[in-house]
Amino acid sequence: MEQGEAAPPAAEGKGQEEEEDDFGYRLFPDRHKKPQSFLVRSLFTFHNRCQLMLRMTLDTNPYAQLLLEAMKQSGCTVFNDRHFSCEDCDGCVSGGFDSATSQIVLCQNNIRQQSHMNRVVTHELIHAFDHCRAHVDWFKNVKHLACSEIRAANLSGDCTLMNEIARFKFGLKGHHQTCVRDRAIRSILAVRKVSKETAEKAVDEVFDACFNDLEPFGRIPHSKTDARRAYRDFQNRDRYNTNL
User: Is 124 among the catalytic positions?
Assistant: First the structure.
């Protein structure tokens, strides 16, 4: 959760169950509003800035480009106008993945820098990739949510050394794993009304398997250079198989 990336999945099971757990939708109030016209939205600086930064991320960021290609190969092609939505959100979150609409929400009032947009889009695309490739029970199985949050924190660049230094967090050996675990727990607590102990238990029970699930990167991309290499390797997978 980056200033908090949160993943509020689909709004199934509404009614009494929703009163007990709103699945994080309280953080994304625009999800419940009637969509504004393009003309009205275009008048707001936040929305324009969000759209421009999103386009820059999709066109130039190797993390996002790899995930978009991987989703396309998995049969889940992502379209800018259909699968991304710039909206105003609660002040504590930067983005979320809504599996009801297969849509990534970008918090236009909280994302102010291109580097932040890059991380948010990558983080949420990992959730979208997991939703595409696996039967994720976002609502009833907190372990499934924990696994995707672990993968998103591990592979999106959330826990790079520079980002941790910017948060005034300086660790020794194993700091990356500690950062991934802590951020996964925070994300769960942001979108689920569960105790901290429940979130910690879910993360700990799936941590090893999900931390070591590096698809589609094949490595932990600690930098854009790593991400570019991973992207090239991904593009060459089919070619190498064909030449065999």
Answer: yes
Q: Which of 124, 164, 197, 215 is catalytic?
A: 124
φ/ψ of 68, rounded to 5, equals -65, -40
| 31-40 mean pLDDT | 57
Q: What pTM does this model have? A: 0.81
Sign of CA dihedral 187, 89, 161, 218: positive
Contact 103/109 with Cβ under 8 angstroms? no
Give yes or no for a contact between 122 and 188, defined as CB atoms under 8 angstroms apart.
no
List pLDDT tens digits, range 132-152: 998 899 988 999 999 999 999
Tokens of 137: 């029970």
Are 73 and 241 a contacting pair, CB within 8 Å?
A: no
**HSE-up (13 A, CA, CB side) for residue 61:** 25
What domains can be seen in the chain, in order of their start residue? 23-135 (3.30.2010), 137-220 (no CATH)
**DSSP letters for 148-172:** HHHHHHHHSSTT-HHHHHHTT----
**Residue 183 half-sphere exposure, CB side, CA atoms within 13 Å?**
33
